Amino acid sequence: MTNTTSPFPEGFLWGGATAANQIEGAYNQDGKGLSVQDVLPHGLRSPRTPAPTPDNLKLEAIDFYHHYAEDIALFAEMGFKVFRFSIAWSRIFPNGDDKEPNEAGLAFYDRVLDELEKHGIEALVTLSHYETPLHLADAYGGWTDRRLINLYERYARTLLERYGSRVKYWLTFNEINSLVHEPFMSAGIPETEQLTEQDLYQAMHHELVASARATRIAREVAPNAKIGCMIIAMPIYPLSPSPQDAAAVMDLDHSNLAFGDVHTRGAYPGYFLRALKEKGIELNITDEDRTDLTNTVDFVSFSYYQSVAHTSDPAKLIRGEGNIMGGVPNPTLEASEWGWQIDPIGLRLVINQFWDRWQKPLFIVENGFGAKDQLVDINGVKTVIDDYRIAYLNDHLVQVGEGIADGADVIGYTSWGCIDLVSATTAQLSKRYGYIYVDRNDDGSGSLERFKKKSFDWYAEVIRTNGATLQG
What does the record give as the active site (predicted)? Predict the structure, then answer.
């Protein structure tokens, strides 16, 4: 049955999301320095290499650096209201601690914004999306070093002063709650035998302070801008109805919610301080830090791909193939080829939980379905018949509508990988998310030509009708 009315509010920000290291390429052009992504050729669970290697698809990615005008024109054809992209820190400050920014890098993002403005598309900019400058990882130990707060502050101020009048929506760190699970990719922290939980949580604190400082700077230099945090959303269900499993779920949920609590409330919650104390961890928090943290965000953004179950029974704690955040596979749910369990209703639950908890506008900035698409020729037109992706996105967007009908203030939705890009978790291009197929393969071959998938027209119609064509 097709809806004739839509719960999505007028002005809802429909669009798509990407990250610099997964689309730009041009890893060593126009003064760009290396980032941690340039030495992770096989994804987040692979060992780093000493230097970039030819098998790293991210070095060229889909060459958005030279195709940005063409790609943004395709986004406009779909009707995008907003485009989420990240700025590569090492394109602006090649080493991260340079005294002056790289003008060629700044000029590139000026050109990207020019194209977005030409097509009437709002920019949603992520300041740091899993690409700490490699020099900061090797020379400082990444975010374990307090000095990165000031280096990030200089970087954020540079961008906010340059683009603050052109960009309304900003995110400080991508999926900040991933730091303790994937320290090198998320925070440039080399994983050595000496790395301790104390180090990881101190690095977390440094990032939270840096995020709050960026929020304060934005209010100073770009008063019309809106600043948000960005976290991984992951609803957690008890594996059984036992109270012990419910308590285990609460504890795991708290470990994720703490990041949003600090961003929205300006201080660490008691349950989190208790958990650190029981781990024997005492954070070095200065009075200045406490003042900085009171600069709370304007909205909460999040990624949503899957839910998990959890249990207090150690014998049943089996890590799911696609899960990096704890929990166990839910026996009631199906999973994608990469082990990500598919749970549209979980998105409605997260929307309600976050709205009830924080009372801040919500922005869904990542959600999508990775699959191995097959390019076909239909009457001389190359395309992908990706009905599986349409079904996944439809079902999740229906639940977004339910969350809005429940009373939550959801301001937008940017589906992940709106154009095919290199996967962060596997560094593959064959794990495709986009509405636009890019002719590049895992072996590096391909023409980089762009083709519209079936989902391209489907999403365009969803946007045109403000969600009224969704099948509920």
Answer: 366
Cα first-last separation, the chain: 7
Instruction: Name the nearest CA neighbour of 230 among 214, 251, 250, 217.
Output: 214
pLDDT per residue over 26-63, tens digit each?
999 999 999 999 999 998 878 899 999 999 999 999 99
Map out the domains of the chain with their CATH numbers.
13-464 (3.20.20.80)
Residue 337: per-residue pLDDT: 87
* Coil vs helix vs strand at 228: strand
Q: Please, what sign has the CA dihedral across residues 262, 263, 264, 266? A: positive
The pairing of beta strand 122-128 with beta strand 226-233 = unpaired
Residue 50, judged by CB atoms within 10 A of its CB (0-12, 13-18, 19+), counts as: exposed
- Annotated active-site positions, please? 366
Return the closest-CA partner of residue 40 out of 335, 458, 425.
425
Report the C-alpha gap between 312 and 455 in whole angstroms.
41
The closest of 448, 471, 322, 454 to 62, measured between CA atoms, is: 448
- The residues near 58 (Cβ < 8 Å, ≥ 6 apart) are 21, 22, 25, 27, 37, 38, 40, 41, 422, 427
Residues 221 and 203: their CA atoms lie apart, in Å, by 27
Crossing angle of helices 197-221 and 147-163, in 10° steps, is 30
Give me the phi and psi of 257, to 5 degrees please.
-65, -25
User: What ranges in 294-386 are assigned the alpha helix state H?
Assistant: 344-358
Instruction: Check if the beta carbon of residue 469 is closer than 8 Å to that of residue 2.
Output: yes
DSSP letter assigned to residue 96? S
How is residue 472 written in tokens? 């509920």
Strand partners, 122: 82
Token reading at 24: 């730009």
Please give the mean pLDDT across all residues of the chain. 96
Angle, helices 64-78/103-118, rounded to nearest 10 degrees: 20
Confidence class for position 281, pLDDT limits 50, 70, 90: very high
Q: Quick one: which of 288, 36, 57 has its CA closest to 174?
A: 36
Mean pLDDT of 146-166: 98
pTM of the model: 0.97
